[in-house]
Design a protein that fits this description.
By secondary structure, this protein is an alpha/beta fold. It has one domain (61-273). It contains 10 helices and 7 strands. The chain has helices at residues 2-26, 28-34, 51-64, 83-95, 116-129, 140-152, 164-175, 202-214, 228-235, 251-264; strands at 72-77, 99-106, 179-180, 191-195, 218-223, 243-246, 270-273. The protein has a 7-stranded mixed sheet with strand order 3-2-1-4-5-6-7, with helices on both faces. Strand 4 (191-195), helix 8 (202-214) and strand 5 form a beta-alpha-beta unit. The longest helix has 25 residues, at 2-26. 42% of the residues are buried.
Length: 284
């Protein structure tokens, strides 16, 4: 009997411990371990498609603050540029208080590498006719860029009637089917908005834009997001004189382009837009 009692005590203790454990698991300790509620679920909702464009459209007029008032703009389109984009850009220029003096269309021949002899010959002839107004050392595409600028732009602060030089250049470029000029002898403008389309040989784009910048007060070049030519202009240093803005297929990009024109009146250069090296929006 004594031996039985000696083992009964430990057995009773084990049973009590098990019973206590079950009770604890079903009681206060279980509540303690489960009282910590799970972390709150953060639900994020993507912005509705088109929100960025809608936002840009709604704030555009405040951002512009009539910054192009009494500042004429000529639009120069390159082959392959989208007509809807061109119309939308013109509308934004007017929304900023500006006036589009005319839209000039660069023909495919002017930027086609296989037509370089034609462009070079005509450029040399026109340079001679202008009696030293162009640097004799200019190469083919910077020279044709300056000639196109003489036809469409000026370096002043207002639109101006085309003089004899502009009239002669227009007539020659049209006759050679290198440039389409708007009807009615449009006046020249201090600001040029260049709309890129199909990809152009980068050396041609560099030369053309360099020439345009030399004969105008300010040049802004726009193109689709991550446009290869705009990227090349920055890589080749042309954006020291020419402002580039990509994303022209979006309302946000078009608003940024017009802000670029406002800025270009006093400050040249910079790469802006959806993937611009100098920021998204050309302010200041």
């Amino acid at each position: 009997m004594i031996r039985h009692r000696r083992y009964a005590v430990p057995l009773t203790a084990v049973l009590l411990a098990l019973a206590t454990g079950v009770a604890l698991g079903a009681g206060p300790l279980r509540d303690a371990t489960s009282s910590a509620s799970p972390a709150p679920r953060v639900v994020t909702q993507a912005a509705a498609p088109g929100y960025g464009d809608a936002f840009a459209a709604s704030v555009a007029s405040r951002l512009y603050d009539r910054g192009l008032s009494r500042r004429p703009v000529a639009i120069l389109t390159l082959p392959g540029s989208d007509p809807a984009t061109i119309s939308a850009l013109a509308a934004q220029v007017r929304a900023a208080g500006g006036e589009v003096t005319g839209t000039y269309a660069v023909a495919g021949q002017l930027v086609a590498a296989q037509q370089k002899n034609l462009v070079d010959t005509l450029g040399s002839q026109l340079a001679q006719q202008l009696k030293g107004h162009l640097d004799a050392g200019l190469s083919t595409y910077p020279r044709i860029g300056e000639l196109v600028a003489i036809a469409a732009a000026n370096q002043g602060s207002a639109q101006a009637p085309p003089g004899d030089d502009a009239a002669a250049v227009r007539q020659s470029l049209v006759a050679a089917k290198l440039l389409a000029v708007p009807p009615g002898h449009p006046q020249t403008a201090p600001l040029l908005l260049v709309v890129f389309g199909s990809q152009t040989d980068q050396a041609i784009a560099d030369g053309l834009l360099t020439g345009l910048a030399a004969r105008s007060r300010g040049v802004v070049a726009v193109g689709p997001t991550r446009d290869a030519n705009l990227t090349g202009l920055h890589a080749d240093g042309v954006t020291r004189q020419v402002t580039t803005v990509d994303g022209s297929q979006t309302q946000a990009g078009r608003v940024a382009a017009v802000l670029g024109l406002i800025r270009a009146w006093r400050t040249r250069g910079g790469a802006f837009g959806a993937s611009g090296a100098d920021g998204s929006v050309p302010l200041g």
